[in-house]
Design brief:
It is a single chain. With 177 residues, the protein is α+β, with helices and mostly antiparallel strands. The protein has two domains: 58 residues, no CATH class; 116 residues, Jelly Rolls. The protein contains two helices and twelve strands, in the order ααββββββββββββ. The protein has a six-stranded antiparallel β-sheet with strand order 1-2-3-11-6-9, with helices on one face. A hairpin with a 5-residue loop joins strand 7 and strand 8. It is globular and about 65 Å long. The N and C termini lie far apart (91 Å).
Length: 177
């Protein structure tokens, strides 16, 4: 009776019993060491990649005005559009705070969405409008953002702005002079 048949029977002995001594595997230790080394290398690689990705995010935090914080949360070159990048910027306004009148790079197309609270916005000659949580708008290259402010004096507000911009453009908010 072979081992497989014996194991399938109801009275089979466990594989570690004297009837089934463990077979030495001359590759077991070396493959185990290889797996450990691979996991260690992958762990170090993962941590290095995470640190490299998070470093620009931490370095990209900026304060435009008191109570206004801007953080780059995503920045990638577009593989199918040479010379263009996509950047996502989280803008956080304290109650009553806002950004000074500004422009963005002339290459920038922007999609903005209110994540929390309400944002007052005025772009170019359009009338000023208040956007609530979940509402969005776009800005075309060269637009002048005259008003960007938290509509509430008691609650904070957040918006996510997604830019498609020339990769070389590092300054994405250009305050009026």
């Amino acid at each position: 009776m072979d081992q497989v048949t014996l194991r399938k029977t109801a009275f089979a002995m466990p594989p570690t019993s004297p009837a089934f001594p463990p077979r030495p595997n001359r590759f077991w230790r070396s493959s185990r060491k290889r797996r450990r080394a691979t996991r260690s290398c992958l762990g170090v690689l993962f941590l290095s990649a995470a640190a490299a990705l998070l470093a620009p995010i931490v370095a990209a935090q900026d304060t435009l005005a008191p109570g206004a914080k801007v953080s780059v949360v995503f920045d990638r070159e577009l593989p199918n559009v040479p010379g263009k990048s996509m950047r996502a910027v989280l803008v956080e306004y304290a109650p009553g705070a806002g950004s000074p009148s500004h422009r963005h790079p002339t290459s920038a197309f922007i999609y903005a969405r209110v994540l929390e609270g309400a944002i007052r916005s005025k772009v170019n000659d359009e009338p000023e409008r208040t956007y609530q949580t979940g509402e969005s708008w776009t800005e075309k290259p060269g637009d002048h953002h005259q008003v960007s402010k938290n509509a509430s004096t008691t609650e904070p507000a957040k918006l996510l702005a997604i830019f498609v911009v020339d990769t070389g453009e590092r300054q994405i908010v250009i305050p009026d002079k």
